From TrEMBL:
The lineage of its organism: Eukaryota, Metazoa, Ecdysozoa, Arthropoda, Hexapoda. This is Peptidase S1 domain-containing protein. The keyword Signal applies. It comes from the Eukaryota. The keyword Signal applies. It comes from Hermetia illucens (Black soldier fly). CDD domains: Tryp_SPc. Keywords: Disulfide bond, Signal.
C-alpha cells in the first residue's frame, strides 16, 4: 500500500472522528432526510487517469483554499442532492436565470429525483430556498457521451420562479471570449470540497480555490483520454478537490463570469496539485439559449 493511500485513509478517519455529521431534518429527497456523512461527492475519475500529470514539470505555488461561507458571496452557487437507486450523491450547479440551473450531464445521468439548494454556503445549515425536481426537469445535452465525457453539460428547469435576493443571483458569461487558451492565467472555482489535509475540515462548507489554466496539449500528452476542444484544462494550485458541476469563474470588472463546469479530475489531485477538466460553457451559449430562451 502506497504512502499516499495510507495518508488518505488516516486523514479520512481523523476527519470523521473530529466532525461527526448530523442528518438534516425534514423531507429533503424522496421523503427522507439526508445523512450528510453518507453523501458522496459527485466526481468522476476515468480509470486510466490516476497517474497522469505526475511529471509535466509545471511549477505551482501552494494556495490553500479559503472559505466562502459569508452570506451572499457566491449567490450563483447551487447545491444539488440527487438520488439514484436509493443512494444520494452531491453535485454543484450554477443559477443562470430565475428558472434554470446549469450543471454537468454526468451528475444527472440515471438520476430519479433531487433537491436544489439556493442561497446556501454551508449545506448543513438553513438554505434560503429548497426546491424539488425529478428527471422530468432535466435537459441533458443530446450529444452527451459518457465514454469520453464529451458535451458534459445539462440544464435543470426549476419548478418555481426564483426570486432574486442578496444571496441568490444568476451568474453571467464573459462579455468577450477570444479563446480560453489565450487566458493562460488563474481562474477561480467554488464548491463544497471534502478533500483536505486538515482534521478540522468538514464536508458542507463552501470553498474557493485558484486554478491555473493550462494548454490542452499538456493534458493530452499526459493522458490517454481525449481532451476535446470543448474542454478547459486546469492545474490545481492547492489541496482542493471539488464536486462536479461546480463553476470555473473569471472576473470582469470585479464581477464573476462563468467560464466552465467541473467535469472530471485526477483522483489524487487534492494532494498533488493534479489536473481538473472543465466543460467550456462559453461554447454552449447557443445551446443554452435554444433550450431556455436565456441569452
Amino acid at each position: 500500500m502506497s504512502a499516499v493511500v495510507i495518508f488518505l485513509i488516516v486523514c479520512t478517519v481523523l476527519m470523521v472522528q473530529a466532525n461527526p455529521l448530523k442528518p438534516i431534518d425534514g423531507d429533503i429527497v424522496g421523503g427522507r432526510s439526508i445523512d450528510w456523512s453518507k453523501v458522496k461527492i459527485g466526481y468522476l475519475v476515468p480509470s486510466d487517469l490516476d497517474d497522469y500529470l505526475r511529471e509535466i514539470g509545471i511549477e505551482l505555488k501552494f494556495t490553500p483554499p479559503t472559505s466562502e461561507q459569508k452570506s451572499g458571496k457566491t449567490p450563483y452557487q447551487v447545491g444539488i442532492a440527487l438520488t439514484k437507486s436509493s443512494k444520494t450523491k452531491w453535485c454543484s450547479g450554477v443559477l443562470i436565470s430565475d428558472k434554470f440551473v446549469v450543471t454537468a450531464a454526468h451528475c444527472l445521468n440515471g438520476v430519479d429525483k433531487g433537491a436544489i439548494f439556493l442561497g446556501v454556503s454551508n449545506i448543513q445549515s438553513q438554505s434560503e430556498v429548497v426546491t424539488f425536481v425529478s428527471n422530468e426537469n432535466f435537459i441533458i445535452h443530446e450529444d452527451w457521451n459518457s465514454e469520453d465525457m464529451l458535451n458534459d453539460i445539462a440544464l435543470i428547469k426549476l419548478p418555481i420562479v426564483v426570486k432574486f435576493t442578496e444571496k441568490i443571483q444568476p451568474v453571467r458569461f464573459p462579455s468577450q471570449i477570444t479563446g480560453v487558451e489565450t487566458l493562460r492565467g488563474s481562474a477561480v472555482v467554488t464548491g463544497w470540497s471534502q478533500c483536505s489535509s486538515s482534521v478540522e475540515a468538514t464536508f458542507g462548507l463552501l470553498q474557493r480555490a485558484e486554478l491555473q489554466i493550462v494548454s490542452k496539449q499538456i493534458c493530452q500528452e499526459a493522458s490517454d483520454v481525449n481532451i476535446h476542444k470543448e474542454n478547459i484544462c486546469t492545474q490545481a494550485q492547492s489541496n482542493y478537490q471539488g464536486d462536479t458541476g461546480e463553476p470555473l469563474l473569471v472576473y470582469e470588472n470585479e464581477l464573476p463570469k462563468l467560464l466552465g463546469l467541473y467535469s472530471y479530475g485526477q483522483r489524487e489531485g487534492c494532494l498533488l496539485g493534479g489536473l481538473a477538466v472543465f466543460t467550456d460553457v462559453t461554447l454552449y451559449i447557443d445551446w443554452i439559449s435554444a433550450k431556455t430562451g436565456v441569452y
